[in-house]
């Protein structure tokens, strides 16, 4: 038997009250975008769940794409069968024979959306359970925590069978929490910060500072490649390149060496905030992790933050490096991030940067 559809269960959308359909429609849009590479796949979403109709498309490929989409709690591949008792019975027997091994326990859970069907849910459970014993007399039924819970849903157009539950990415649909500017350096931390912001529904735009000839075309391509990696979690991400050479040279020439990093970061923050305002963003997101480098002490963060009243979100601020690396490897950005290209934050880095800069001196 070949899977005909995937039933998608929503995550936190169930808590969204009157805004529920707005969240569902955004999730539907994101699923359609991510699955657009499969021309025969059709997405239908209602208030309780979504249905991905495969129409002959390979299930494994579609499932891998679905695992990346935020707002999905889980999903189950389903078999579509003709809506009559004999056909349903035969399909249930075939599925259970395929999955059976010694000691396996099972349960039948029926749902009758079509109330004109000849059996109600309780009767159907008993009928189909007996059908399983006909072909697998040694199998054990178990009502709580069975190895296989075979779900049978009777809808208007057909019957659907499913037993697998695959975990989704969770979180909220990208775009439901507003827009944010991601300060994307090209290192390990900022793409992870972007990923975590996407998971909470933020529609991000990547802002990358380039200082040629001090930074190379390779560094720019690296940041662009990282942005592309993040698109699989919810859709297009605009990449904004900021030419930063003249500003960095001016800072290098006129500022005290110990304050070079602080002043560079303050200018980056100012410029990002101007871009945010122009593009109707609500927040700025960066990959700062507390205490990891000199510019990421609390005193440094306060001095850098002082240039804007815009909220600054730091999704990885309390994580250690190994935790961040684990996520980077999971989302497939780590190998790109460790490519040996310098970025704006490292080219003029002082030997002894100020770790407790005074705002008055900035």
General description of the model:
- Keywords: ATP-binding, Cytoplasm, Nucleotide-binding, RNA-binding, Thiamine biosynthesis, Transferase, tRNA-binding.
- InterPro entries: Rossmann-like_a/b/a_fold, ThiI_AANH, ThiI_fer, ThiI_N, THUMP_dom, THUMP_ThiI, tRNA_STrfase, tRNA_sulfurtransferase_ThiI.
- The protein has 362 residues and is an alpha/beta fold.
- It has 2 domains: 5-167, VC0802-like, CATH 3.30.2130; 179-361, HUPs (Rossmann fold).
- Helix content is 36%, strand content 20%.
- The protein has helices spanning 20-34, 59-66, 85-99, 121-135, 189-199, 217-231, 245-254, 260-278, 298-305, 321-330, 334-337; strands at residues 5-10, 42-45, 49-53, 72-81, 105-112, 140-141, 148-154, 159-162, 166-170, 179-183, 203-210, 239-243, 283-285, 312-313.
- The strands form 2 sheets. Strands 1, 2, 3, 4, 5, 6, 7, 8 and 9 form a 9-stranded mixed β-sheet that branches. Strands 12-11-10-13-14 form a 5-stranded parallel β-sheet, with helices on both faces.
- Strand 10 (179-183), helix 5 (189-199) and strand 11 form a beta-alpha-beta unit.
- The protein is elongated, with a radius of gyration of 26 Å.
- The termini are far apart.
- The model has no long low-confidence stretch (mean pLDDT 92).
- What is the assigned CATH homologous superfamily of the largest domain? HUPs
* Helix percentage range: 25-40%
Computed over alpha carbons, the radius of gyration is 26 Å
Contiguous uncertain segments of 5+ residues? none
Rounded average pLDDT: 92
Largest sheet: 9 strands, mixed
- The overall number of domains is 2
Strand content: 15-25%
């Amino acid at each position: 038997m070949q899977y005909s559809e995937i039933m998608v269960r929503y995550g936190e959308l169930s808590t969204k009250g009157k805004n529920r359909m707005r969240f569902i429609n955004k999730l539907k849009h994101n699923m359609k975008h991510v699955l657009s590479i499969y021309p025969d796949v059709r997405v239908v979403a209602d208030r309780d769940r979504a249905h991905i109709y495969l129409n002959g498309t390979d299930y494994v490929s579609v499932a891998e794409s679905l695992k990346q989409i935020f707002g999905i709690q889980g999903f189950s591949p389903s078999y579509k069968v003709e809506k009559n008792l004999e056909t349903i019975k035969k399909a249930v027997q075939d599925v259970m024979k395929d999955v059976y091994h010694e000691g396996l326990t099972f349960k039948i859970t029926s749902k009758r959306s079509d109330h004109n069907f000849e059996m109600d849910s309780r009767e159907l459970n008993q009928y189909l359970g007996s059908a399983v014993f006909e072909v697998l007399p040694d199998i054990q039924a178990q009502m709580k925590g069975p190895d296989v819970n075979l779900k049978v849903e009777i809808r208007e157009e057909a019957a659907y069978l499913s037993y697998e539950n695959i975990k989704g990415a969770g979180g909220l649909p990208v775009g439901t929490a507003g827009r944010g500017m991601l300060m994307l350096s090209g290192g390990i931390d900022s793409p992870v910060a972007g990923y975590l912001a996407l998971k909470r529904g933020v529609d991000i735009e990547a802002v990358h500072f380039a200082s040629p000839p001090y930074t190379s075309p390779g560094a720019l391509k690296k940041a662009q490649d990282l942005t592309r990696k993040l698109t699989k979690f919810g859709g297009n991400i605009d990449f904004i390149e900021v030419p930063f050479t003249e500003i960095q040279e001016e800072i290098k020439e006129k500022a005290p060496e110990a304050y070079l990093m602080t002043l560079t970061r303050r200018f980056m923050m100012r410029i990002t905030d101007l871009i945010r305002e122009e593009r109707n963003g609500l927040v700025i997101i960066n990959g700062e992790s507390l205490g990891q480098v000199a510019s990421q002490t609390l005193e440094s963060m306060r001095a850098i933050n002082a240039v804007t009243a815009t909220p600054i979100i730091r999704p990885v601020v309390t994580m250690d490096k190994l935790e961040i690396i684990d996520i980077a490897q999971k989302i497939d950005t780590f190998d790109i991030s460790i490519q040996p290209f310098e970025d704006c934050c490292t080219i003029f880095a002082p030997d002894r940067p100020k770790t407790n800069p005074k705002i008055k001196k900035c």
